[in-house]
## 1
Amino acid sequence: MRDVYVIGIGITSFSRLEYPLVEIAAYPAIMAMKDCGLTKVDHLFVANMGASRLNHQTALASAVVDHLSLCPAGAECIENGPASGASAIKAGYMAIASGLHDTVMVIGAERLREANNLEATDFVASLTHPLAEQIYGVTLPSMAGMFTRLYMEKYGVTSRHLAMVAIKNHDNAMFNKFAHLHEPISFEGILDSEDALTNNPMVADPLRFYDMCPVSDGGACLILASAEVAKKVKRPLIRLAGVGQATDTHCVHERKEPTDLLAVRGAAAQAFKMAGVKPSEVSVAELHDAFTILEIAESEEVGFFKKGQGHIALAEGYTGLKGKLPINPSGGLKAKGHPVGATGVGQAHEIVTQLRGEAGERQVKNAKIGFTTNFGGFGNNVVALTFIKEK
Amino acid sequence: MERHILGYKCRGCGRVWYPNRGVCQDCRGIEFEPVPLPKNGKLLTFTHLHNLAADFEVPSLWLGIVELSNGNRITGQLRIDSPKIGMKVVGKVEPVRQVGYQTHHGMIFYKA
Ligand SMILES: [Zn+2]
């Protein structure tokens, strides 16, 4: 297999975007072409989850490739729920590693806010089992709530630990101009004060409003290339060194140990093994914190901490921006935002920015190895990626 | 007639699956026969959900995962005042969601 590099990146703000989905996809792609100086690519993969249902648009990739005047390059959509973004990166990896293409543009784009919040939540819930979960009113927040209750019972995680994730990621997002939420929060405001239950109401007990990511629009783009192309581009050499993916049961209730996220464990193990890297060597990670508990649980499953120890590392500041292993310096899904199909590309965008040393006030010192976990379903389809900065 | 939720018993190895699947995880068998699932069990975890899809008329719902007496697990709604992990529950098959003209029936659990 050939080596694969990320040579260009681009991103939109993650927020409410008042322009068409095709333009949400095209803007970061234009930025990424500018970033690396390429004006043509061999192929496009467009990650998206909701276009057909929320934006009344199918065959998005065909529209995007022409909008960018990149015809006759091949183009297709990748839909893998909230892990669509990293799945599209994986497809790009395979295309270049195999020798089929030399340059691939991977775009993630989503326009969820054309629907209202309830419609958006109901739309995301359509990834659950139609007869065994959906008919009961199960949503992703409710699954996260049931998961959190078990985690608290088993490992001693408290609402305070969850709030620590939210506060940390909101703080990090203050340094990210593309983040959805620029809103510092405190224990006082969301947990301790008399108004805390009003400011931060229960949504899926024990998870509250500030344990949930916002519903975002947004787009992000990576341009991937072979070594031959990458070495001609005058940008830092960032290699996509490991790609892993694993699946788990569709119904959450069928998992033997309901606090395990085996697909996260499996995907991460592959992505580390392929890159020849140990979890302890990672300098910076973006984990899929759609709910605060997930940052804690994933930090354990990918191998950064032992099972049940993630919340302790968090409380000690280990995962803070100035800690030994900063997690979600971008603000994470929690505060940077979660445009579902675009999220995985957004995570990779942050890691490449960090490894290039271009992250400004949120720059992680000496970042050399970066890692992402993009979590689809409620953990039933997970893609993990390892990136290495080369000399 | 009393309604039941159906499990699917593998003709190869006898294991009951819920919901149905095309291939048995244990023996790769592909033939299954429907069997009624028991209704009593133990509550494994739960949540009180306040943001519901627009078609629900109630403001909030209690949802939970129950381990049934035969070992199968099932997701369902709860009508229990203050649920506790590990408590004994018993289910009834009742309307759980109305989507347009279609009424979905599913398991609602009560205190045993
Ligand atoms: Zn079998």
Note: The interface with chain A takes residues 18-19, 44-54, 56, 61, 63-65, 73-77, 85, 96-97, 104, 106 of chain B (CB under 8 Å).
## 2
Amino acid sequence: MTRTDVLKDDSQQRQKDLIGGYFTRLANAPKTGHKTVATFVPGNLTELISCFDAIPILPEINALQSGMRKLSGNYITEAERQGHSEDVCTYVKCDIGMFEGGNIGPTGEALPKPDLLLLSYTGCFTFMKWFELLREKYGTPSVMLHVPYQGQGEVTPEMRKYVVEQLERVVIPALEHTTGRKFDIDLLREKLAWSSKAEDDLVKVWESAKHRPSPIDGYFGGVYYIGPIFTAFRGTQEGAEYYALLRSEIEQRIREGRGPVTPEGEMKEEKFRLVVEGPPNWTHFRDFWKMFTDEGAVVVASTYTKVGGLYDRGFRHDPKDPLGTLADYCMGCYTNHSLPNRVDLISKYIEEYSADGFLINSVKSCASFSAGQLMILREVEKRTGRTGAFIESDLVDPRYFSAANIKNRIESYLQMLEQKRSSVAGAAR
Amino acid sequence: MTRSPEQIAADCESIYYDLEFKPARDWKAAEPGRKVVGFVPVFCPREVISAAGALAMSIVGAGDWLEVIRGDAYYQSYLCHIPRSIVELAVSNRLDFVDGMLFPSTCDVIRNLSGMWQMLKPGSFVRYVDVPQNYEPEIGGRFWEGELRILAAEIGKLTGVAVTDDSLRESIRIWNENRAAVDEMYLLRRDRPDLAPTSEVYVVLRAGNVMDPASHTKLIREYIATARTSKRAAVDSSRVVIVGAFCEQPPLALIKTIERSGCFIVDDDFLLVSRWYTAPVAETGDPFKALANAFVKHTIPTAVMYSPKTGRGGALIERVKTARAEGVIFAAPSFCTPALLDQPMLVDGLEKAGIPYTAFKYAENTGQFQPIREQTGTFADTMKLWSAV
Ligand code: SF4
Ligand code: SF4
């Protein structure tokens, strides 16, 4: 399959249209009178925001888009020139640099300043400082939704009550104030029902990777699949329709015994099945992906694609308990889980998806993911008996993507897996 | 026999360098059944630990005098140093006498360390302590009160001493006294940094990490009394506030370097837990409510707590004014997300207010001080020049 064939995939075109439409809607918000609410992907309250007819702005998505379009390097340099440390998350610096450069979004149109900074403080400390910094810059009000961390590996009734109370008494009033609209809980229920439907289909897509060959790549391909549900399309009919379409295409691929679609075409032979922990690098996304496809390695499950919700572990937005379900959602995002829970999840992925091994891409920017990953590596190895690989890069700072090193690491790791496989096969003969 | 301030500081310095934590071990050994509960920066509800009869021991890393060998295997190079030295302390069994560990919600590194600890020391008492970032008494306050009650019950189970309202009130009183003594020592240093230099104040403060609060209060008071009346040669230095050193601590030699370069440190954010509340915690009424109320109303402004309003620099400018400081030194640990993300906002405030500043990064095991000495020396000279104009 050629690159042009890849683009013909209906769901891919639909995904592109959705995301493009979203950015255009956002750019036009000052003209259409829509209010905009900035928030973060983990713990985003898209359904709630859209109940007020406001449009979410996801600064991480803007940053990763800038990374993919090779603009992030300059943005980061600009932020560092202004005094931002080289030691902090590059998403923040990319966002600040983008703002200084006119806040031009991926469609080439200028994005508006947010009317409200909804600080969904879930799973990452940087979020808090990021919005404090933006507030100083934009002069936009901020509202905090403090989401307790699952430090002991569980959500307690007290944690849930605390989040619900904040939604009722802090977040909803702030949204009402910003938009001038009254909160309608029935509208929220309707939206949550659409979310749940989309989540059902997305889970089927993830689980399709249990087949051999896997019809999807659950990491590199996965980041396209999560696009709509991590941005503005959770809780919408369009979003649900996209996931239904995606699911049907994937099911068709299973029936036809086809492998995943990659930028180089369809993967013909699945040689290695891997689980990946950690976010990808965006500045060299395609090169990075190619390092895997060249070797016949497919990612059957990943943790990064769960930062916006661990639907595959059973969570669904529940219209019967609208605010409680939002609280559960926020607390259940991947990076809000304790390290033992993360070890557990990765180990289960390896077993459930019959993976040959696992790889950790440790990104310099993100302590939320990275602090403790070396221990995760050892614990998962101990637990599963599979050897893992560890590579280092960054999200959107091109200075920290050393292609030759990373390629080397991946190749030697896969060779090692191959040797192990041959020796096991040899011993069995 | 009365000790001179220099002697007190020298004794405290040996506690500072003691990585076997002898005072804490001795406290534990003094009575059978005693327990020690450790915690890492920056905050801990120490009152609850003491009320359960345990020693609240503050663990702030191993500085520059422990070679981190195994700890490095747990952390990538682009993370700060403190977690690796804390892990080193743990895996080298230097913390084997510690019965439980608390990890506050300081940042993602500390947060994830709580999970690592659960895996490093399976079956041991490890708690992540999520403090409220919502400051409404009825929301964040109530949540925190509930968390404190749960924590009290759990630590009580660990020590075998149930926390009662009375024991917690008494503990609040003891810690209030300790904070009052710390505040007084800070005031003395602010007014007479020539008599109470930070290199001494810091080690006296730091000795409290491994002491019971009442003994530490006595030590501080002894230091204050003798430092106040000591005869020391007058020194002409520039008055500075240190910002950003609230978690991973700068090595003592770095503090001394700053002083020797011509700076009086007249305010700082070292060991922040010892000055966490800006007002005493209520000693009457429901003690859990009192602690929760103190947290949501009187927490000292710091990078790790959400600031609901614009003007992050405002609180720092206030501190500079109150301390009659001439400038600010941003001294943040390398890779410290809270300190380094906070810094541009604070710088912005200082620039608008025309307050001079300089900035550098350090690690707890920094060994090279010459560049810093030159930088802070030049900064001190510049400030003097400006004030002379
Ligand atoms: S630190 Fe990690 S989770 Fe937080 S904003 Fe940066 S990349 Fe995202
Ligand atoms: S030094 Fe900074 S980043 Fe490191 S653990 Fe402490 S607060 Fe977190």
Note: The radius of gyration of chain B is 20 Å.
## 3
Amino acid sequence: MTILLIADHDNRVLSDATGRALTALCAMDDAVHILVAGHRAGPVAESAARLCGAGRIILADDAAFAHGLAEPLAALVVSLAGDYRAIAAPATSGGKDVLPRVAALLDVMQVSDVVRIVSPDTFERPIYAGNAVAVVQSTDEKKLLTIRTSAFAAAGTIDAAVPIEEVRAPHGVWLARFEGETLSSRDRPDLASARVVVSGGRALGSAEKFQDVLGPLAERLHAAIGASRAAVDAGYAPNDLQVGQTGKVVAPDLYIALGISGAIQHLAGMKDSKIIVAINKDEDAPIFQVADYGIVGDLFEIVPELEKALG
Amino acid sequence: MKKILVPVKMVLDANARPRVRADETGIDLSGMRMSINPFCEIAVEEALRLKEAGQAEEVVIVSIGPAKAQDTLRQALAMGADRALLIQTDETVEPLAVAKLLHAVVMDEPPDLVILGKQAIDDDCNQTGQMLAALLGWPQATFASAIRAEEGRLLVTREIDAGLQTLSLPLPAIVTTDLRLNEPRHCALPNIMKARKKPLTIRMPADYGVDVRRRLKVLAVRPPSGRKPGIKVATASELVGDLRAAGLV
Ligand SMILES: Cc1cc2nc3c(=O)[nH]c(=O)nc-3n(C[C@H](O)[C@H](O)[C@H](O)COP(=O)(O)OP(=O)(O)OC[C@H]3O[C@@H](n4cnc5c(N)ncnc54)[C@H](O)[C@@H]3O)c2cc1C
């Protein structure tokens, strides 16, 4: 039996999330086919073909897939669903958008945000913002899974690429129309896969100070920048930097929280980081309960000292 | 638009700390404060704003849950919704079954737009809106941070991993809300009193002929693995020394 994994990409680059989801699925002891649905996405298919653990690549190249919209993509996945024992996607914004649509069309109850595959039908997933972990057994014949990518390592690559098979887009009338997008600049490492993340909270006080304080430190540490919801809501940082229950979930080697109180919704997105550093002027801030290293003090004084000490 | 349907869920309050039962059967909700799921509250608010802007005539709220979920519905009515429906059950109803019940409600009503929260903060599934869109064959715009009604279509800005995306949807359509869509209003006391007189209908899942049996067996619910307590360091240079020793910087 085989598993179908829906690749996450932007038509040019295969995201690291796909390889992490592949690592998770390889534990199920089945062949994994990776579906690349995109527009002029040949290079993505070629990268997918070199992921260690991929059995075959299915490429559906059509203008309908240019922006990853749920309607055509769900129709395509349903048309391919046939014999696959499981259909999975990384729990990225794209995966979360499309997979439930597929699940309903196949009459399957999806398991969201899998953090551990216990057996081919049993999975662990966080609930209540990660305050509990549920072990669930799916009784549906097909399993539909989104994979929380921060819980799994990136897949390696191989030299000999696996075959790429092309399929056609299903016919249909797609109702939602793409109008435009505003993409964040990509001059920093990707938040979801960076080894080091520097995050700022409400304490930063303005977009300028957020950039002035976090920018150089992140640069020095080759880190991605993250933010709390309060910082995003206040306009200090763009929405795609939000870490937490309802933002991105990250698990870097080092997470540095600056002026973040540590609300459970924020912890949900970073408490599986290997080492957590917190700088906060309130010694009772809950962030210190999860921090490996804490400094009590004013971040505007401590961050420059930190940069100096780093040399 | 004539009608907007807003499904809402009652959940453990976002500020309460969930207690995992010692026998691993789930979360102990007894005596805990229950509230409207924050994302659903945002959905109610957005529907009301569309109505107040003259874009819709009626806002109907529906919830699937225990008798106590009437409180959640009354809150939505106090915010300004016109009427409410409770599909009453004490069982846990999974997103797929919720979507099937909502599908039946949509057939009864039928609304021009359904606005739902993108996820419930208890099971964190993030599925129901997309599933309902699939069952209805309607377009979907998930994770909305802005909605504009324009010439019979909806322009929806969505929060995606890479930034923001804007979609244009014909009606009828499904939208799921993200946190930055709006800030829900507080209910004034007179409105809370008035809401008591607004129509609230109660039905059972069986009235809709929907099979709500669970597809996922919950084998155990456990506390997450905790973190070891850390240390406080006095200075930045001490911190850097420790991080260097650990090979992190
Ligand atoms: C449904 C729901 C979903 C949510 N999802 C998320 C989510 O995904 N991500 C998220 O982050 N939040 C989320 N939240 C919000 C969360 O509850 C908190 O409100 C938010 O995380 C607080 O952000 P903060 O820590 O930056 O701000 P605050 O809680 O205001 O903390 C600011 C901290 O900065 C410290 N401080 C102030 N000045 C200084 C200084 N000069 N130097 C050092 N420290 C200083 C203060 O002591 C304080 O601890 C969600 C909430 C809800 C209800």
Note: Chain A touches chain B through 89 residues (CB under 8 Å).
